[in-house]
Amino acid sequence: MFDAAPLAAANKTELYQGLSEQMRGLLQGEHDRTANAANFASLVFHSLDGLNWCGFYFFDGTELVVGPFQGKPACVRIALGKGVCGTAAVTRQTQVVADVHAFPGHIACDAASRSEIVVPLFDASGGLIGVWDVDSPLPARFDEDDRLGMEQLCRLFLASLSEIA
Ligand code: SME
Predict the structure, then answer these.
(1) How is domain 12-160 classified at the CATH fold level?
(2) Average pLDDT for residues 139-162, to the nearest whole number?
(3) Which of 56, 94, 103, 144 is most solvent-facing, going by the fewest CB within 10 Å?
(4) 70-94 residue pLDDT tens
C-alpha cells in the first residue's frame, strides 16, 4: 500500500508536487467518490505536518453534509453561506483563514482548530459538489503555497471521479 509518511521536500511547492504524484497514483483507475475521498483525506492527513482535521463536505442539494475525513468527529451538516465551509461554497473561492476565531460565523467542530483552508469543489458544469476542508491547531498554518497546492490536489480528486480508466 501507500507510504503516507511525511515527504522530504525543500519547500512547499516541492512538497505539494510530491504529494500530487502520490495522489495521482492512489486515485488512478478508481472513480468511486467515497473511496477516493477517503484515501485522499488519509494521504493528506498523514503527509502534511500540523493538521488536526481534514475532510470533505458534500452538497446534498440543500446543504453540506460531512463525508470521508481524518480527525475527531465533526459537525454533520453545514448550511450554505455558514462558517468557512459554507462561505467557500457560496463565494466559489478558496478560503484561507489565518485565525478562525476572527472569522465571523466560524463553526468550531474541533476546539483545537486555529487556522483553516477550504477549497470549493465543482463539477464540469460548475455545479457544486462540496468542499475540501483542512484545519490546523497552529495559527496561520496555511499560505498561498498551500492554497495552490490544495487546489491542485482537489483537481486530481475531481478528475478521478470522471476519468476513463
Ligand atoms: N470550521 C468549519 C466547520 C467544519 S470543521 O472545521 C470540521 C467551518 O467553519 O465551516
Answers:
(1) Beta-Lactamase (3.30.450)
(2) 97
(3) 144
(4) 999 999 999 999 999 999 999 999 9
Alpha-carbon torsion angle 94, 60, 69, 154, nearest 10: -40
- Phi-psi category of residue 81: left, alpha or beta, with phi > 0 → left and psi -120 to 50 → alpha: left
Who's near 22: CB < 8 A, 6+ residues apart?
2, 4, 7, 43, 47
Sign of CA dihedral 68, 73, 79, 82: negative
Query: What DSSP assignment string belongs to 12-76?
Result: HHHHHHHHHHHHHHHHTT---HHHHHHHHHHHHHHHSSS-SEEEEEEE-SSSEEEEEEEES---S
CA atoms within 13 A on the CB side of 113: 25
Residue nearest to atom 1 of ligand 1 (CA): 107
Q: Where are the domains of the chain?
A: 12-160
Residues enclosing ligand 1, CB less than 6 A? 53, 74-75, 78, 83-85, 106-107, 109, 113, 116, 133, 135
CA distance 149 to 32: 23
142 CA to centre of ligand 1 in angstroms: 15
Mean pLDDT throughout 40-46? 98
- Phi, psi (5° rounding) for residue 153? -60, -40
Q: How far is the CA of 23 from the centre of ligand 1 (A)?
A: 24
